[in-house]
Amino acid sequence: MLTDEQQETWFAYMRVSLRLAYEMNHQLQTDSGLSLADYDVLNALADSPGRRLQTSALATRISWERSRLSHHLKRMGGRGLVEQAPSAQDRRATDAVLTDAGLAALRAATPGHAALVRRLFFDGLDPAQLPALRAALEAVHEQVVEHGTLPRPAAHQHRLPGLQTGG
Questions:
Q1: Distance between CA atoms of 33 and 26, rounded to whole angstroms?
Q2: Cα–Cα distance, 53 to 97 (Å, whole number)
Q3: Domain positions in the chain
Q4: What residues have CB less than 8 Å from 44, skipping those under 6 apart?
Q5: CATH code reported for the domain at 24-147
Q6: What start-end ranges are recorded for coiled-coil regions in this protein (predicted)?
Q7: pLDDT per position as a tens digit, 37-92
Q8: Are 22 and 57 in contact (CB under 8 A)?
Q9: Dist CA 99 CA 126 (whole Å)
C-alpha cells in the first residue's frame, strides 16, 4: 500500500509523464514529421559508436520490447531513416544503423525538441531544484534497472547528438 504522500507523488509523476510525452510527440510530428518513438530510436543510434547498435541492445536502451522495435525499425527503414544490417560484433545478430538521412532528420528536429523540453520542463523549475531533481530521477532509474525485467543498458546518454549545448 502507498502512503498518501506516495500516492500524490505518483499521480503527479503520471500526469507529467503522460502529458509531456503527448506534447513532445505532437511537436515532433508537427515540426519534423518524426514521432517521439522515431526520435528515441534516432537519438539512441546517433549516440552509439558507428551510429549502430545490435537491435537487442537498442531495445534495452530505449526500454522497448524487441518485437515492437523490429516493427518500428521496418517502418523507419521504409522512410530511409535507418537500415538493418548483420551485426558488426556477431553476424548472427542484427544491427540497427542510422542512415545519413536519419541523422539529418534528427539534427533538424533536435533544436525544436530541445526548445520544447526547456519551455515545458525546465522553465517551470528554479535552477536550484535541478540537482535534487536529477538525483531523485537517477535514484528511481537505478531502482527500476535493479529490480526491473530488462537487462542493464550498456550506456547512459548525457547529450543530444548534433545539438550545441549552452549554459
A1: 10
A2: 7
A3: 24-147
A4: 53, 58, 61, 62, 157
A5: 1.10.10.10
A6: none
A7: 999 999 999 999 999 999 999 999 999 999 999 999 999 999 999 999 999 788 88
A8: no
A9: 39
